[in-house]
Each structure stands twice: as structure tokens, then as C-alpha cells.
Amino acid sequence: MPILVQKFGGSSVADSQKILAAARKAIRAQNEGNQVVVVVSAMGDNTDLLIDLAKQITDQPPAREMDMLLSTGEQVSVALVAMAIHSLGHKAISLTGAQIGIRTDSTHTKARIQTISTERIRRALDEGNVVIAAGFQGIDESLDITTLGRGGSDTTAVALAAVLSADACEIYTDVDGVYTTDPRIVPEARHLRQISYDEMLELATAGAGVMHNRSIEFAKKFGVPVHVRSSFSDQPGTMIVAEPEIVGQAVCGAAMIKNEARVTVLGVPDRPGAAITVFRKVTAKNVPMDMIAQNVAADSRADISFTVPRDELPHTLKAVEDAVKELGAEGCDCDDEVAKISIVGLGMATQPGVAERMFRALAEKGINILMIATSEIKISVLVAREYAAEALRTVHQEFQLDQEPPAKVSGTLRVPLADGTRSVPDTMVVARMEKMEKLIIEEVALDESQARVTVAGLPDIPGLAAQVFSEIAEAGVVVDMIVQNVGRQGHANISFTVPQKDLERCLAVAAEQADLLGCPPPASCPRVSKLSVFGVGMKSHATVATRLFQALAAEGINVELIGTTEVRVNVVVDGRHGEKARAALLAEFADAMG
Ligand code: ADP
Ligand code: ASP
Ligand code: MG
């Protein structure tokens, strides 16, 4: 019998009527011939209320006790949903994470799933029950309750769908699918029929709270088709599958993270391994580092900037102060009034000028760009928080995301529900099952075709990035990786890579621009090697960047530029070291090669 996993978010079980409506949906699915597993979140904003309660007692509640507290929210709702199904004359059983056997590591409040036992669920299903599983929670080796991070019920649902080889995973929520951006902030956002795993993963990590990013890692790893749809209607929602909605589209969506903080370590001695000290100390505190920018040193000292969630700033600064002392760096600087705006699209890599359009649109609104990080399918900029919503609306408008794009629609809009097709072969699913939320590295690619250009000492005012890149685009040069960092004396440094054959042309334009803007002449490296490590869990496994730096430093290779996203970490090193760097990374990540 086909297995269907249905997940109901907090707003979909916010009161008794909604709980009954969710119960009816589950019963209907069972009557249609499915075995049904329902994953439920805490009612309404119950999780927020529990967090508030804890904060009234203490500023720093122990993480273990926090998990004990937060897991009660889901325990309430699973019991009520099971009662609702009983009251409608059907069999149901509620189970906590521990009862199901969702084994996690012991990182309280951000735990990762290690294994899931399916025995109890299968038995209950075979006895004719609708199984009601508590989302967001698990149990560690010492039988302590853990939670998976805010929004983690999505991850429970997709993980259960994966281990049960479910035919579909339906995510019922308060919107009728995934939009080009958050429709609460930009009402003209467009509903997407379909979106690819990679795009959804990047959007979710960039702030699209509609799906927990780690749930998409699972979906991608195990080829689970996810259907995001409304609890309050039967309209088709959005399918999250391997293929994008429109092949070749440069930008499919935009997202923002409003509460970020930027930290810059100033004047770090530029030697292999210096950056690791910073990363190691920050990741040891379990703080996820986001945009990372390291500019090439002009005076053999580098500035390293990165962003972290705003409420992680205090203990990030403690770690950074330690690193400053250890490294003999000049100091550190931070700004906690910043927000990150990102655009995402699989077609970006093949279309020139996307970054420049984003920078120009923001410049025309007078919005200053504080940091830039790009990858093949995502461009992120940091702006002052007061401009966050306006910046999001501006980029949404610039790429006309509110309008149905001209069709070159991907031929087959898959209706993957119950069709049994999986983008990952079954043998691979079995192999990956053992790894659950472990890091998987697909490939370490080497691109030796690029050169690097750095324009340093730019005054930090709106429009300069747009100006530099529009002149370069005008000269017909396609820019690949872009990193803008905050430097000393409040200056901005921009580094980027271009094809080697275009370097001279590009340098002429950059020199002219630098002169006009009163900056020193641009620096360059005629041959760099770009290494791309890609796979699943690149960023949610906070240690990937550190391991990567460490492996390169051990070979005496200095990292010139770095860019991280959910699916990739890109690093640029001197062109002479490409092969050696690739070998070092392959060896470092051998255990994670999928
Ligand atoms: P649930 O409680 O069902 O898990 P969430 O609040 O976690 O629901 O997620 C749904 C919300 O996500 C929507 O109400 C919407 O405001 C927000 N959201 C953010 N980005 C997007 C997007 N790109 N598409 C749809 N919704 C989005
Ligand atoms: N109740 C948890 C939260 O609010 C998990 C979830 O809803 O997905 O974050
Ligand atoms: Mg959610």
C-alpha cells in the first residue's frame, strides 16, 4: 500500500477546529488507499510562548532543558490530533520522537538526525492506524530529548518520508505553496508551480522560512518529492523536485534574513592557516557562519568578514577576541544592524550581468551594499537593516519575479505524487540512508581558467559596485565569483574572477574606474585556480569551511577568496596550486564522498 506523509505546521493546528480539519484530511487520504503518517508541529505560536517563558526565568537556559521544554509543544498537538481522528471513528496512535526511534546527535536545540527506526511506525500502520508523529524532536544516545532547530518539523516529515520510502510528502501550511519571495513582505510575489531542490535549499537558507532548509537536504539526498500546499484549500501547491520550474531562468526567487550581524577581523597576518584560527574558534561555539569574505591582502594583512545570526553575536565576539589575540591581528569590528538579501536561480551561472543588475537596482534606490558574496546559483548582499524590506522588493521588481516568465517551460512538469519515480536510484537511496543527515560530498571540481582582480580602498557609498561591474559588463567581460569585504578605515574591497583571456581588457576598465574613484590601481593575479566542493549539507555542517582551510593550509596553500552556499564551498587559490589543492581536498573529504 502506498505510504503518504502529511505534515501540518503550527498555524494548521492552531485551534480545535483546525485540528479536526487536519484529522479529516488524514482520514480522507487513508480512505483513498494510503497508509498515512501525520507529522505535527506545536499549536500556533506555542513554541514562541515556551521560549518566552524560559527567558522570563533566565537569559541563558541550559540547552538540554530548553529541549525538554520545547518538545512538549509537539506532544500536546500529536495527542489532540490522535483524539480528533478517534472522534471521527478511525484508528490513530500518537508517538513522540523517542517512541518512533528518531536518534539524533546531542547538539541540543540544533540536533541532527542520525537514524530512524521504522519498525514501530510500520507495525502501527499495518494495524490500520493513522500514525501521528511529533515533529521537530528526537532522542540522543543518553535518551535525552533533543530538538532539530526552529522549523524542524519539516525535516521530521521529509526524513520519515525518506526512510519509509513514502510515495509523497505533503507539507500543509498557511500559504498555498512556495512563492518567488515571502508574500507577507512582497504581496505581488508569484506562486511557483515547481522549484528544484537546489534552488529551494538556497532560498530556505537565505531566509525563505516556508521550508526548513535541512528538510530540503533530505529531500534532495533521497529524491523525495515534496508538495507544499495550503491547509485551508485543496488547490495544488508547489512541487519541490529535482528539476526547476523553468529551465535556464536566471532568477527564480529572492529572500531575506533580517537579523544578521557582521563581524570583521581586521589586519590578520596573511599566511596559510590564519583564517582557520578564526573559523575554528567560532564553529567551536556552534555558531553558523554565513557570508564569508576574505580580501587579498595589500599590506600582507588580510581582513576577514563573516555574518552570523544577530543573537549569536555576543558569544561570536568572545571567540573572535580570542582569535585576534592568538593571531596578532589588529582588532575586530562588528555591525548588528544588517540584513542579508539574496537572489537565487539555476540559470544564473550561464547568464552574464545578473549581479550587476542587482547592484544597480539597489544603487538606484540609494541602498548601500556592505558585503557581497556570490556562487553559481546565488548572489547575496548585506545592507543596513532599515532598508531590508525595500531592498527585497527592489530586487524582486528588477527581475520581474511577479510576472509569469516567458515560457521555455521545462517540458515535463512532473506530477510526482505517487508516480514512484525518484531522481536518485534505489541503490543510492539505501547507501545514503545510512548517512541520514551526514555530510555528503559529490565532487571537488577544479577550474583553472580564471584570473583574479581586486579593487581595494573603495569609499563605502551606494552605487560603486554597480558602477564597477556595469563598466566591466560593457566591455563584454563575464565576471564569475564576486566578494566584497569591509576593510580597514571603513573602505570596501572588491575581488572577482574573470576568464584569463579577458584579464587585460578587464584590468584596463578596472584601472580607469579605480582612478575615477580615487582608489589605488587594481591588483590582479593572472592565473588562479577555483576549487568547488559540492554536495549536501555544506553549510549546515559548520565545520566544512574550517576543514577545507585546514587541509589547504597543511599544504602551504593560501586561500585568496572564499564563497559558501548550501550546496557548495568555492575557494580561489594561486593558479600554481590547483591540482595540489584538489588532491588535498579529496583526501580531506574522502570519508564524505557520496
Ligand atoms: P508552518 O507553521 O506551517 O511551518 P511557517 O510559518 O514556518 O509555517 O511557514 C509559512 C510562512 O513562510 C508563510 O506564511 C510565509 O510568510 C513565509 N514565507 C517566507 N518565504 C516564503 C516563500 N518564498 N514562499 C512562501 N512563503 C514564504
Ligand atoms: N514548533 C517548532 C517551531 O516552531 C517546529 C516547527 O514548527 O517546525 O520551530
Ligand atoms: Mg515552518
Task: Please characterize this protein's 3D structure.
This protein is α+β, with helices and mostly antiparallel strands and 594 residues long. It contains 17 helices and 24 strands. The strands form 4 sheets. It has a 12-stranded antiparallel beta sheet with strand order 14-15-13-16-18-17-20-21-19-22-24-23. An 8-stranded mixed beta sheet has the order 3-6-2-1-9-11-12-10, sandwiched between helices. A hairpin with a 3-residue loop joins strand 23 (559-564) and strand 24. Helix 9 (274-284) runs antiparallel to helix 10 and helix 11 (354-364) crosses helix 12. Residues 409-422 have low confidence and may be disordered. It binds adenosine-5'-diphosphate, aspartic acid and magnesium ion (MG). Residues 9-12, 41, 151, 173-175, 178-179, 181-184, 208-210 line the site of adenosine-5'-diphosphate (ADP).
